[in-house]
Amino acid sequence: MSCPDLKSAAPGGSGWARFPKQRLLDFAIEFLVRRGVRADRAARLSETAVAAEAFGIHTHGLVLIPYWDRFIGSRIDPGAEPRVVKERAATALIDGAGGFGQLALALARDLAADKARQCGVATVAGTNLSWLAALGPQILPLSQAGLFAQLWVQNNTCKDCAPWGGIDARFSTNPVAFTFPTGGLPMLSDFSSAALSMGKTRAMIRRGELAPENLFMDKKGCPTRDPRVVPEGGSIFHLGGERYGYRGYALSLWAEALTAMAGGSANNPDVPDRQTFCLTVTDPAAFAGGDYYYREMARFIAHLRASRLRPGFDAILLPGERAQRAAEEAETHGILVEDRLVELLSETARRNGLAPLTSGDRT
After folding, report:
1. Is residue 314 within a helix (H) or strand (E), and if so which, with residue range?
2. In what order do the strands lie in the sheet with 223-224?
3. Which fold has domain 1-79+334-363?
C-alpha cells in the first residue's frame, strides 16, 4: 500500500518551505473532520502524519492526507473502531475493521506496553488495516517509556519485489521498525525489506534519477539502476540488492509468515487491499534490569562513538538520531515541506472546501 505519487501535483518550484507544526496539525484535523472522522481521532491521525513529516520522512508523512482523501469511504471506513478479538496474558489480536491503520496501531502500542510490563514480553498483531505509513514515529513512545519494540508490517496486494531467483513480484516492500532506549535519544530504525521503499522509488522516477547500483529488475529479469522499470512490470530488489538480496528476501518472508499467523492474507492480489502488523514489546526490567542495561549501553555507545571517522563523516550517530533532532528543531523553526507537496495539499483542500496552505502560513 504505497503513498500517493507526487507526480499528481501541479508543476512548480522544487524548493522547500517551513510551516508551523500547529498550522499543519490544524489543516489535517480540519480535513479529517470534514471527511467524517471524529475530532479526537482526527487529532491522533493528524499527529501521525505531521510527526513523520517533522522527522524528515517526506514520502510517508503529509502524503497521508491525499491518500486519505482518495480512499476514505472506499478502502477506509472513517467510523471503524479497532477492537481486540482475541487475547491472552501476553498476546492480543486486533481487527482494524477496515479503518485507519494508525488507530489500530495506537491501540496495539498501549496494550502491548501494559502486557510487557506484566509479562516481560508481549506481542500484539493487527489485521484488516489501511496504510500505516511511517512506522518509526509511531513506536518511538515505547522506547521513550523504557521499552524495546519491533514492528513488522505487510501489505497483501502490492507487486513490488520478486522472490529471490524469480522475476514476478510476489511481495510488498514489507517494512520493519526497531526502537530501544539508550539513556539519551532512543535508537530508532525504520526501513523496507526491499532495497528502497516504493515512495522513494517514485520520488527517484519523478526526479529522473538513477540508483547508484542495480536496485531494480525489469520485466525480463534484467538488473538495472533505472527505477522507471518498476511501474512497467519490473520490481525492486530486496534489501541487499542484486547480489545479496536473499537477506532482505528472508526478512520479507518473515513478515508474510507473521501475517499468516495473525490471520491476515499473505501476498494475494485477488483480495481487498489491506495491511497487517505484528508488534512485539519487551521490558528490560524482566531481564538484567534497567540499572545494568543503561549502564552497559552508555559504555557501549561511548565505545561506538570513539571509533575513528571515515572521510566525509563528522560524527557517529545512532540510527534515528538525526531524524529526532530534526523533529526537535521543527518544534521551534517549523516543519520542512516540499513545494510540490504544498500544492498537492492545497488541491486536496480545494476539493474539500477548506482553506489551502498559503505563503502567509509559512514560518
Report:
1. none
2. 223-224, 216-217, 235-236
3. Hypothetical Oxidoreductase Yiak; Chain: A, domain 1 (1.10.1530)
